[in-house]
Amino acid sequence: MESKHGEGVRNKQVIFRDFLAKGAFPKESDMEVTESTIELTRAVAEGSKGVLVKNLYLSCDPYMRGRMRELTDSSQSYIASFQPGLPVTGLGVARVLESGHPNFKKGDLVWGITGWEEYSLLPAPETCFKIEHTDVPLSYYTGLLGMPGLTAYGGFFELCSPKKGENVFISAASGAVGQLVGQFAKLLGCYVVGSAGSKEKVDLLKQKLGFDEAFNYKEESDLDAALKRYFPEGIDIYFENVGGKTLDAVLLNMKLHGRIAACGMISQYNLEQAEGVHNLMQIIAKRVRMEGFNALDYYHLYPKFLEMVLPQIKEGRIVYVEDVVEGLENGPAALVGLFSGRNVGKQVVLVSRE
Fold it and tell me: For residues 43 and 53, what is the distance between their CA atoms, to the nearest angstrom?
């Protein structure tokens, strides 16, 4: 909705109310949907490099759980806490309405860090990528062609150095990152097994995403035995998304010189005291290389990533499962549901189709 010069328009926002207590589970009431006004024609100050955008899609991601805690020590996280009283921020897809930045002009589509609101003024748009390819769904830039895609690409190809025929295990395999790692591994000719938290997700992995095998970890009382069943010869590569007991069992089943890429430990987010790992001696005994990483480590490879993945999407060799909720007012429920596994695939909030 455009405004006349000097007139304000409605700007619906999701406001973060207050920090969570340690170990507390996020609730919808930790966020509040409100309305403010914004003057679209005078939002970007003269001489600034800010960009005014209209948000189209917003991304719900596991790392946002950590941002709901007050972090007093920068070593606790790689990204700052949300600020009480201000809009939630995260990755999204948006259209530029006004720009003071030389890299962006009115009408450009971008993906990057934005606010959970209808319109956002981005004072530092250097955190955004201009979208050049619009012959794929724009929502993909919250997942497959955005941060989760880079996470899967960098962690698997750059960190794990996979080879054809290797055995690959992925936890949280139906999520935004896991589903891509599995498909990348299959395209390379690996044997791929994933774990997930429901029959629906297990069926998705085997029937739509092409995994060789998949299992519901909630139905396995002995994860070590389950992994021995699916990997009688051991695991070469483990893509770590959950931590805790799963990592414990994996270490017992790694092959000599196995590799572990750790990008997130979802099961740890909602524990007051994180679970310890008890089989670390296996890292030494089996010469396992385990490395933590962040998608930011691979942002410089984004053009190379697009060059590889775009043809695969257009040829139907890579598919992507999204769980889209419509309306900014439904964003808090979508984000909270992420931590109980309510979503199937990448969780996205559709703000506007314009």
Answer: 10
